[in-house]
Amino acid sequence: MDYTLREWVALSRNTSLASAAIKKQCQESDQPVSAVRDTMRRHLHCMMEAVRDGLNENLRSVSGLTGGQASKLHGRLLSGKALCGGLLGKATAYALATAEWNACMGKIVAAPTAGACGILPGALLAMMEERGVTEDQAVDALFVAAAVGESIACQASISGAEGGCQAECGTAAAMAAAALTYLEGGDAQQCVDAAAFAIMNLLGLVCDPVGGLVEVPCVYRNVGSSGIAFTAADMVLSGIRCPIQPDEVILAMKEVGDALPASLRETGEGGCAGCPCMKDACRICR
Asked: pTM for this one?
């Protein structure tokens, strides 16, 4: 059974959103808590490895369009010059590293998709390093993110081909925003409000992969969406309530996605994919 965000909040009334999500996973998989947590922990470790490998300065994709950019962003952070500072600076660099590692055929965790794979891992790993979040807490946060992602997938879409990049990076940002809110002590309502704010700020984002590859502008959107996840979490944690029901924001995303023309839904025809300079770049790299 799939739940709306409103239903997730109701299920979490006498427990945490993480515990409610873990209970659901145990029921569906017919496995004990220890087993489902161990599986999620393996996902977390895979995320960590993707960040590590994605920060390699010599990394290059087969197309030559991406690779090595995360190392540059991380280098600026280490130099102390990054405008974003330590926490967000790490989150964005790690998000880019994961997305580039995916483009280079590395192993990643689709969170919820390959094209948006860096946003959630970047946020969690930065929190672990900068805020002292433990592995167990990060695992709990991943279950919170999973609950939000499942709800979006069931009510709208997580596919760029179906709903534009709002469905991919938008969902990933929503998942990350909810996870961040949870880690900072937010309750279930605040978690889903943060998710709604993230979607709201990415509503209408098109899917326009250059050359049909999950590289440009995909990897860079992981960076920008990371910032939205953090600001969404900060809004709700400061006491701001989302003025629109979170589930209605999801339905609005579906409506917008359905209205997008085919050229802006992963066909590689419009948007950035239609820029003449990018068409030339694709001819060169192939």
From this structure: 0.97
State both tokens at 161.
């081909």
Query: How many Å apart are CA 154 and CA 140, to the nearest integer?
Result: 22
Three-state SS at 265: strand
Digit-coded pLDDT (tens) for 141-164? 999 999 999 999 999 999 999 999
270 burial level (CB within 10 Å; 0-12, 13-18, 19+): middle
Dihedral over Cα of 271, 277, 281, 282: its sign: positive
Q: What does the block give as tokens for 197?
A: 């704010």
DSSP letters for 166-221: GGTHHHHHHHHHHHHHHHTT--HHHHHHHHHHHHHHHTT--B--GGG-S-TTHHHH
- Determine the residue type at 219: V
Amino acid at 146: A
Per-residue pLDDT of 215-258, as tens digits, reads 999 999 999 999 999 999 999 999 999 999 999 999 999 999 99
Residue at 141: amino acid letter: A
DSSP 276: H
Cα–Cα dist 270/262, whole Å? 9
Closest to 40 (Cα-Cα) out of 113, 187, 138, 116: 138
pLDDT at 284 over 80: no
Give the distance, in angstroms, between the CA of residue 212 and the centroid of all CA atoms in the same chain: 20
Phi and psi torsions of 239, nearest 5°: 105, 5
Q: How many Cβ atoms sit within 10 Å of the Cβ of residue 109? A: 21
Number of Cβ atoms within 10 Å of the Cβ of 107? 10
Q: Which letter does DSSP use for residue 60 in this model?
A: -
Per the CB < 8 A criterion, the answer to whether 145 and 20 are in contact is no
Distance between CA 190 and CA 260 in Å, rounded?
30
